[in-house]
Design brief:
Blueprint lengths: L1 E10 L3 H8 L2 H6 L7 E3 L11 E8 L2 E13 L3 E8 L4 E11 L2 E11 L3 H31 L6
Length: 153
Amino acid sequence: MTVTRVFESTIECPVEALWEFHSSAEALRILTPPSRKIEVLSKDLEVREGALHVLKVRQFGIPLVWKARISEVHPPIGFTDTAEKSPFKSWRHRHEFIHAEGGSLLRDTVTYEAPFGPLGDLARVLFIDRDIERLFAFRHKATRRALVPAIGT
C-alpha cells in the first residue's frame, strides 16, 4: 500500500535560507539522526535536475544504500528526490519552501511503499510509519536549530 505523509513547520527565516540550507551537502549530515550514521558515496551532491545522490545509511546496525534522483528543481521553492534504490519498494520526497507569515513554511511530502507486500505493510503499520514520523520531526527541529540562530532570533 502506498502512503503519503506531509510534515510541516514554520521556520523563522526567509525561503532563500531554507533553500540554501536544504540544497547543501552539509545539510545531509545535519538532517540525519546520529544513530543512522550517514556516509556520502557521491562526489557530487549538487541539487540540480537529474543529479544522482548515493548515500549509505546505517539503520538498526544494517548498512543501506540509497540512490536518489533529483528532479523538479525550482530554486528557491523546492525540489524532489525519488529513490532509484532504497529499502522501500518506492520512495518520493518533495521538499517545499513556502513564504509564510513570520518566516517560511517547510513542507516535506513523502510518498512511499514498503517492500514485501502484506508483510511489508504490517511492518509499516508496526514501526516504519512511526520511524518516518520521528525522522521528519528530527529534520524539522534540526533545520530550525541550524537556521534560526543564524538570523539572530
